[in-house]
Structure to design on (481 residues):
């Protein structure tokens, strides 16, 4: 299909709370964009779910806005999707469960029981996904043990993108990238893992068909939607790297919005001896390794809304925090208010202020929170930097609007930080996958780099000691959570 000319490369990013559709031209310029949101429910403690039909309706609405009939024949659509979700489907295609999200922690006890065993370690090194309640593996095991009737009736175990694909084409298909985030996929053999299937007591036929991230499906059997070509795409984490341009040796992607992640691209799959990082597939000989944190900007929002209740705006407090000494006068914060994924993989971890004294102010607490978030991200990043020398960090996400945040990253990591000016990195990454599927050279597009932040070498030793204290504190408290 290399000779087909498209004017509109549409990236559909199916996120946790919003589906975004962005139409780009061949140079990455945004032609139009649209977002449609949906809610999340918590029917029990530690449960996080969504109605898959609401997400499908948001997708359909976004696609109609971005691909009107007048441009349909000039458009190609590619998908990015949030990872680690699970829906149990019956033989008629009806969901037996809601979408169980990555943030769902109902399988905590099961994951804790398994992760330190020889079986748990072997599964990690076969799949590249730590044993943790966020993984599809743990979720299916929870259904088997706690909802045996649903488990026995399940025809297919799928995620949200596979649900949309089924609604479009009437078939259950998953790309290697999303499969690699499930904890069910053997990344070395590039197929569903036999040991995992045996452990879960399910058949390979109960999982979607595996295809490349550049798999193209022509048109759709759903007559309500535009007749366009679809590329299946990949997971949002790997596509954020691709969209931000952090794909070469020496480059690291740093993203912080509600949550956060540190990732880099490697040519060989990698699993960590201590099971601290993930391994995602993107393309042949291109893997994304890294770690994601539950606790990003949402922690600062929690501080503002639930703790401070201050007449000062958070922006004012951040301005005051910027003028304080490194370490907030011996106030240290462990940011695990939502439990944690990387690097500790402890769903029961909790937030801690350590060292509070009568001299501390709201601004001290704000700085301690900001430092704690970046120190935690550094705990992930330093694991990756053991595998590859990093020269520059590509920063994206809501935090990248703050010079103070970005300078903290530069100083704690002691690396040059570059703002990535790519709009909607995961959506643009999906568009780049479409270009690659069409064998277009434009898939090697270089992102536009924005403002640069250089590390202050004079503070390196102070942050090094602060990070060592941060990790010691968690290590002393981890058995108390």
């Amino acid at each position: 299909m290399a000779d087909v000319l498209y004017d509109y490369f549409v990236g559909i990013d199916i996120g946790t709370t919003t589906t975004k559709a962005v139409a780009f031209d061949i140079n990455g310029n945004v032609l139009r964009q649209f977002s449609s949101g949906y809610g999340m429910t918590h029917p029990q403690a530690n449960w996080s779910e969504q109605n898959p039909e609401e997400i499908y309706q948001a997708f359909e609405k976004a696609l109609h806005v971005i691909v009107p009939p007048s441009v349909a024949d000039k458009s190609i659509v590619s998908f990015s999707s949030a990872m680690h979700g699970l829906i149990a489907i019956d033989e008629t295609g009806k969901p037996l469960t809601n979408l169980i999200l990555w943030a769902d922690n109902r399988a905590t006890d099961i994951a804790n029981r398994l992760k330190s065993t020889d079986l748990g370690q072997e599964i990690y090194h076969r799949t590249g996904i730590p044993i943790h309640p966020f993984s599809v593996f743990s979720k299916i095991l929870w259904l088997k043990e706690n909802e045996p009737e649903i488990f026995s009736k399940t025809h297919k175990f799928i995620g949200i993108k596979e649900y949309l694909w089924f609604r479009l084409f009437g078939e259950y298909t998953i790309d290697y990238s999303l499969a690699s985030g499930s904890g069910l996929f053997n990344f070395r053999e590039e197929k569903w893992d036999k040991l995992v299937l045996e452990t879960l007591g399910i058949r390979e036929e109960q999982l979607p068909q595996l295809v490349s991230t550049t798999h193209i499906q022509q048109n759709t059997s759903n007559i309500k939607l535009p007749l366009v070509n679809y590329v299946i795409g990949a997971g949002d984490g790997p596509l954020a790297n691709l969209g931000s341009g952090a794909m070469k040796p020496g480059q690291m992607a740093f993203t912080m919005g509600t949550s956060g992640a540190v990732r880099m691209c490697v040519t060989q799959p990698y699993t960590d001896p201590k099971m601290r990082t993930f391994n995602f597939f993107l393309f042949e000989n291109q893997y994304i390794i890294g770690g994601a944190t539950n606790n990003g900007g949402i922690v600062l929002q929690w501080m503002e809304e639930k703790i401070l209740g201050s007449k000062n705006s958070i922006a004012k407090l951040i301005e005051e925090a910027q003028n304080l000494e490194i370490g907030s006068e011996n106030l240290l914060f462990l940011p695990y208010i939502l439990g944690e994924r990387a690097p500790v993989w402890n769903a029961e971890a909790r937030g801690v202020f350590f060292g509070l004294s009568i001299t501390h102010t709201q601004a001290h607490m704000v700085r301690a929170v900001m430092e704690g978030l970046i120190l935690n991200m550094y705990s992930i990043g330093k694991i990756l930097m053991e595998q590859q020398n990093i020269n520059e960090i590509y920063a994206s996400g809501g935090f990248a609007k703050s010079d103070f945040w970005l300078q903290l990253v530069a100083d704690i990591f002691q690396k040059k930080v570059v703002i990535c000016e790519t709009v909607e990195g995961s959506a643009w990454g999906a568009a780049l996958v479409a270009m690659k599927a069409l064998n277009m050279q434009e898939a090697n597009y270089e992102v536009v780099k924005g403002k640069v932040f250089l590390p202050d070498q004079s503070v390196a030793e102070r942050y090094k000691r602060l990070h060592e204290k941060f990790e010691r504190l968690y290590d002393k408290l981890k058995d108390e959570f």
